[in-house]
Amino acid sequence: MRSVRDDQLVRPTVEDEVAAAGSELVGGPAGRRALPGGWRNAVRIVALVMIGMFALGMAQKAPCYDHGWFFGATTQYTHACYSDIPHLFAGRGFDQGLIPYLDRIPRSAGDIDFLEYPVLTGLFMEVAALITPGGGSIQHREQLNWFANAGMLLVCAVVIAVCVARTHRRRPWDGLLVALAPAFALTATINWDLFAVALTAAAMYAWSRGRPVATGVLIGLAAAAKLYPVLLLWPLLLLCWRAGRTRAFLQSLGAAAGAWLVVNLPVMFVFDSSGPHIREGWAKFYTFSQERPVDYGSLWLLISQKTGDPLADVNTYATALMALGALALGALCLCAPRRPRFAQLAFLVVALFVLTNKVYSPQYVLWLVPLAALARPKWRDFLVWQACEVLYFLGIWFYLAYIGDGDKHQGLPLEGYQLALVLHLLGTLYLCAVVVRDILAPERDVVRRDGSDDPSGGLLDGAPDIRVLGPARRRYRPVERVEGRVQWGTGSGGA
């Protein structure tokens, strides 16, 4: 691996005014000799900060630990400490030793017949249930199961922070954006999303090191834990096509498909006298996602509430809007004056999915945090977006408290919740807008200010543009490499 000297590392307290102002709390901006140990020291600090913030997030759930999760009280909403984990321990039959996808859940245990999560997430839940001590009341076992899951999710959180810190060789301190993200700490233990996010962050790191097969394997595994990571294949296709490196994409695509099949095939089919057919338990996640109506957090819910239309065809609307957005990203990639960075397109395609999806659970912000830190490592923009997400995090729980507390109405009325929802949408759109601006005006991209091309681009870093559309053909092109970095200039062609 190419080494990076201490004097080559980008110090955020030097280049970022918000980071410099915030550093006054710990002694002020870093000096010229303030980084002994180089990137290794930075990665260790990022990991420790992540552990500390994760612990604070666990402490924030303390009001629910003793009673809020168990007796139908609104404490889990009024104190914003809700988590799916204790509810689904008994609600999906883990307390009874049921095997996900194989055993049908008794109606007495829950309101669903099979576990509605992808296979690797189901495995994660099963492992946590197996290490949860038996005996005692169901309430006590649910508490212990939450701690077992939290411990495993902490490992995922550290992996995410370390991968982000190491993806851009010269910018390890950008990992602090992830470690200090308030919405990350608040939502980390709501659900099991961190497992898929960790695999996705590892895939980004593998691609930055020029390992397309490892990238594909990790994307395939991540897609077996949550659906959204498969979206990263679209930016990879676009970038590899523009750079003329389609072989690398095909390697990643094949590895992703293979990894996903290896995980899913053992539970996908059931065999009987009539032959193989799809197992109902395995298919539950996909049928549940298809049949799920408009739900909290989505643009479609706001439209439905304002118009009174239940939007029965929301799947068609959401799919069409997502497809149009994906085509727009393709045009952006091929027409941009310089090939966009992988992290930029990865963030935009996942953000597009978040904005067009028919549901937005508060923990979905975890999908975007590491991608945002890599796509736009600017503290001001990142914190503006995070502020909007924290306000939505509070808004959804206070609204649920308002509608679930009888005539007391302790919480936020519908109009207040809709305002929080609009802030979430606007905050995400704002961050998308500045990323698109960086793509169209690459001289404003903070990552590229030092002459870098795409530190997270792996085999594409510094590659010539082979297929370019529109005015981009006469704009920027790589001129030469100086000390391993691409120097850019203007020219008459793409390569």
Automatic annotation (TrEMBL):
UniProt KW Membrane keyword: yes
Superkingdom assignment: Bacteria
GO CC terms in record: plasma membrane
Compartments where located: Cell membrane
Pfam family, one: GT87
Lineage: Bacteria, Bacillati, Actinomycetota, Actinomycetes, Kitasatosporales
Keywords for this protein: Cell membrane, Membrane, Transferase, Transmembrane, Transmembrane helix
Organism of derivation: Streptomyces caatingaensis
Its membrane topology: Multi-pass membrane protein
GO MF entries: hexosyltransferase activity
Name the UniProt record assigns to this protein: Membrane protein
